[in-house]
Amino acid sequence: MSESEIDAVVFDVLGTLVDEPAGVRAGMRALAPSLDAPGIERLLSLWQQHIEGEQRRVLDGARPYLASDALDREAARLVADAAGVDDPAAVAAMALSGRRLPPWPDTVAGLARLAERFPLIGLSNASRTALLGLNAHAGLRWHQALSAEDARTYKPDPAVYRLAVAVSGRPPERLLMVAAHAWDLRAAQSLGLRTAYVSRPVGDPPTSADRFDLYADDLADLADQLDKAGGLSR
Description:
alpha/beta, globular
C-alpha cells in the first residue's frame, strides 16, 4: 500500500494510543491506597467487564445509549463498593481516571511524524468531554477528534466509523484505520476502510484469518512502512 492511496489516517485512541489499564490502575491506587497488586487487578477486571458489558448491551439494544462518562461513574461505584470505599469525592475522582491515561512511549512522536503528511482523525468510544480531557492529558495531536457519542452508539457499530468517513469527505477506501484491536479493524474493514494493526500489550491481536493492510510494531514502524511505500517524510 502506498502513501498515494491514503487521504487521511483514522486512529483508535483507548489502548492504541494510550495505556488505558495503567491510568485506571492509578485511579484505583488513589481510591484505596492499601490495595495490593492482585487486589488492583481484580478491581481492574471488574471495571473492564462492566464497561465492555454495558457497551454490548447498548449495541444489542438492551439498554438506551449512555455516554462513556455515565458508564465510568457506574464502574467507579462498583469498584468503590468492592474496595469498601464510601467517600463520594473519592468515587468521583475514580470515575475521572479514564481521562488521565498515559500515552505509549512512541505515541506523541509517531502522531507528529504522521501529521506531517496526513490529516489525522481520532475516533474513540470515549465521550466528547472525556476525549477532550484524555487528549490534553496525553498530549495527543489531532486535526479532528471524533467521539462515538456523536453517533449515540459504540464501536464496532458501523455508524461510528461513518463519522470519520463523513468528516474526511473521502471514500472509505481512502482512509487508513489504525488500531490495536482486531475487532475494531474488522468493523472498519467491513465498511471499506484500509486497516493497520499496531501491536500493544493491551490490544486484541489478529487471528490467522485476519487480512489487514499493514501490521506494525508501533507508530514508528507504521510510519516507516508508509515511508517505504510512498516517501513519508521523517
